[in-house]
Amino acid sequence: MTRKLTALAVAIATIGAMVAPVRANVPASVLTSAKIEHRGPTLELHFGFSGPAPRLDLSTHGSEIWIALGHTRIAIPPRPLFGSETAPISSVRAIQSDTNSRIVVEVIGKSDYAIARLRDRNEIVLRVATTGADPNIAAPIIVHNSPRRPAPSVARPVVFAAAENPRPVSLAQPVAAPAPVVLNEDNRQAGHFVMIDPGHGGYDPGTESSAGVMEKDLALQIATRLKAALEARGIRAELTRSTDVFISLAERTRIANSAGADLFVSIHINSSPNTDTTGIEVYYLNNTTDRATIRLARMENGGADGYGTSNDSNLNYILTDLRQNYKAIEASSLARMIDAQTVADLDSGLGLNVNALGAKMGPFYVLVGAHMPAVLVECGFMSNATEAARLASPQYQDVLAGATATAVAHYFNGDLAAGDL
Ligand SMILES: [Zn+2]
Q1: How many angstroms does the Cα of residue 126 sit away from the middle of ligand 1?
Q2: Residue 213: CB partners within 8 Å, gap ≥ 6?
Q3: Per residue in 15-38, pLDDT tens?
Q4: Alpha carbon of 131 to ligand 1 centroid (Å)
Q5: Domain 185-414 part of CATH 3.40.630.40
């Protein structure tokens, strides 16, 4: 993992070009403090600045996380936390340079990380945990980053239709809408464009709930709300299908490619032989040997004739597409953020403890042909009657779509990233 997170690098390059003529007059940010906090299994590093935190450019180099700070003066010791570093962090270094000041965090063993630039608090926060120790490592940062909205006026927890009565339910009162994370002006000018892909359609219904609700219908409803939520955040969005029609998987990515989309988000509803299984998981493309993932991929890939190829050798061949491998780092970071943000917002907005099943690699044919970072959101489980009823409720769909849009806005803003090393 030595490659830079391209989205961030591109964003920085864009900003750099815009401000270059006046750069000499822009006062440098000053890094004035560093401290470490323990949050359960996670170490949280706080880097404080004299003014707004600079835009961060994150890259990983072996066991090191580099946070490039560009035009920043370092006013803390080179080893600001000397002696108080604990596993999985082995050292923190602040390196002053005229053009390329940076913070270097070295970790021991396989670790997950999430990083955020908190403009309101003049801070950059980096969370690090041993891989798997904190499955929702990105969520607290994301919640902190956008002010937690007032508690909904309805009593918590919101009770959805019981399993034996899985009809769409409506809440007694509307829940306060989350404050949208609005793209900053630079990114708005860049004209980010998301292709949203509602799964299945036409004669391919996808999975079905015990009450007869079909995946293709819920996917279209959620996708339509996601389009509106993205547009409310200044991000252009289109749908691969806006009606109940069948589109082959190859055609879906062809639409995204020819439209020049910057991001491909496919919306699906999950299903499991175990009816107790619930939660949200987000996939990005990669080969995988995980048996549950392969089973799900078969289900999503092989639903109907003309639904792409289910020929293994062909799929494996396409999986070696270097272009999509190159996007895997960005897509995995976005997948983590969507999973964390949706679960956090469903908790704070509706008082629901939804399982964060995490970001996973999966061999999904629909993601294979995309020439841009591509993720597939499995919004919940049709096979669980309670979750199926929630998924059909407009309020649940709105929070889910809004949270997904928030994660996408953070992704384009380049002020949040998550990954592992
Ligand atoms: Zn599906």
Answers
A1: 34
A2: 166, 382, 388, 391, 392
A3: 333 333 344 455 678 999 999 988
A4: 28
A5: yes
**What separation in Å is there between the alpha carbon of 250 and the centre of ligand 1?**
15
- Per DSSP, 113 falls in state E
Domain locations along the chain: 6-134, 185-414
Q: Rounded to the nearest whole angstrom, what is the distance from the C-alpha of residue 223 to the centroid of ligand 1?
A: 13
Query: 274-322, pLDDT tens digit by residue?
Result: 999 999 999 886 544 455 555 666 667 664 333 334 444 444 334 434 4
User: Nearest 5°: CA angle at 229, between 244 and 192?
Assistant: 95
CA of 214 to the centre of ligand 1 (A): 10
Query: Nearest to residue 113, comparing CAs of 99, 103, 98?
Result: 103
What is the C-alpha separation between 50 and 364, in angstroms, rounded?
46
Cα 377 to averaged position of ligand 1 atoms, centre (Å): 9
Of the given ranges (184-198, 263-277, 326-340), which has the lowest mean pLDDT? 184-198
**What spacing in Å lies between the alpha carbon of 303 and ligand 1's midpoint?**
9
The three-state secondary structure class of 349 is helix
Query: Helix H segments across 202-242?
Result: 215-232
Q: How far is the CA of 258 from the centre of ligand 1 (A)?
A: 23
Same fold, 6-134 and 185-414: no
Distance 283 CA to ligand 1 centre (A): 12
390 Cα–ligand 1 center, Å: 17
Query: Residue 88, preceding bond cis, omega within 30 degrees?
Result: yes
Q: φ, ψ for residue 99 (rounded to 5)?
A: -115, -15
Hunting for tokens 């995980």 — which residue is that? 290
Distance 357 CA to ligand 1 centre (A): 17
Q: How far is the CA of 366 from the centre of ligand 1 (A)?
A: 10
CB-based contact 209:216 (threshold 8 Å) = no
The CATH number of 6-134 is 2.60.40.3470
Distance 19 CA to ligand 1 centre (A): 44
Label the pairing between strands 57-61 and 64-70: antiparallel
